[in-house]
Amino acid sequence: MALVKAFTQFVEPPSSPVTDVAQGAAPGARPPKLETVQMGFFYGLNQALRDVSLKINERAVTALIGPSGCGKSTYLRSLNRMNDIIEGTRVSGKVMLDGEDIYAKDVDVVSLRKRIGMVFQKSTPFPKSIFDNVAFGPRIAGLTDKAKLTEIVEQSLQRAALWNEAKDRLRDSAMALSGGQQQRLCIARALATSPEVLLMDEPASALDPASTSRIEDLIFELKQNYTIVIVTHNMQQAARISEVTAFFCMGRLVEVGQTKQLFTNPIQKETEDYITGRFG
Ligand SMILES: Nc1ncnc2c1ncn2[C@@H]1O[C@H](COP(=O)(O)OP(=O)(O)OP(=O)(O)O)[C@@H](O)[C@H]1O
Ligand SMILES: [Mg+2]
Question: What is the secondary structure of 27-76 as a DSSP string?
Fold first, then answer.
């Protein structure tokens, strides 16, 4: 079977008590960390997402795949209200974090974004030192204690697997780092505010294979402690790092399932066509 052949390199993710697909989850399974219910999204009059109901498991990796323009980034950005900054946009349906509507009137968006960090496709370090990049979020949150800041910077760089390369150059400009290092710096910066969820929009697409592999190893490590949602165009990557994969097409969630099942035995014809390269 072409499908099976295409994914013979599939790596079985280690079993975890929370990797049950939360969609129609077994009794006793943990509630989802994030959930969208019949979610829609509009750029002015243009509807970019419709009727997206998806549960995202805690401390696991969920991959979002689908053809260009299908709404993956829009969906990701609506999970921490990053779309709010785009004028004329509107969300319908519900987006919930730990069962609470993140679009409710009383929600403080700054604290929400502290809980749900984001890493973008192009690394976006600030033109500041490595230290100041990582300390940025905690400082904005009001932390001034130097010893505490130093501790957070070291811990975040450790978690982002950049400490060894950066520890002797913390005062150097972040712009002097390589592309792969800059992306790990952005991950460290996102981790510095102790988020619960990490949203990643094609975090490795601009990187060489070695740096990509480091980011993938890192994601594998991070999922012990964080809920990760990652957009990727690389289906082998989705197969390697995620437990659950959601396939989007033209603003709709076509299919979601255990990654292995979705790649080897998809239910929908559209999914099969996409993963076998027949379109998209
Ligand atoms: N800022 C914006 N203003 C208006 N329309 C937008 C904006 N951003 C995205 N869109 C539209 O919303 C739809 C979904 O775009 P989105 O960027 O979410 O797709 P995507 O799946 O991430 O694509 P890609 O794989 O190319 O990154 C597209 O039709 C796009 O043109
Ligand atoms: Mg995108």
Answer: TTPPPPSEEEEEEEEEETTEEEEEEEEEEE-TTSEEEEE-STTSSHHHHH
Record the pTM. Answer: 0.88
Is 73 near ligand 1, meaning CB less than 6 Å away? yes
Q: Is 13 part of any domain?
A: no
Q: Mean pLDDT per segment of 10 residues, for the chain of length 280 residues?
A: 41 37 58 97 98 97 97 97 95 97 95 93 92 96 96 95 96 95 94 95 89 91 94 94 97 97 96 87
Ligand 1 near 21 CB (within 6 A): no
Domain hosting residue 137, numbered range: 2-8+21-275
Coil vs helix vs strand at 81: coil
Question: What pLDDT is stored for residue 234 in this prediction?
Answer: 92
The domain spanning residue 243 has which CATH number?
3.40.50.300
Residue with tokens 């943990």: 30
Ligand number nearest to the C-alpha of 250 = 1
Total domain count for the chain?
A: 1
Question: Is residue 252 included in any domain, yes or no?
Answer: yes
- Domain for residue 263, yes or no? yes
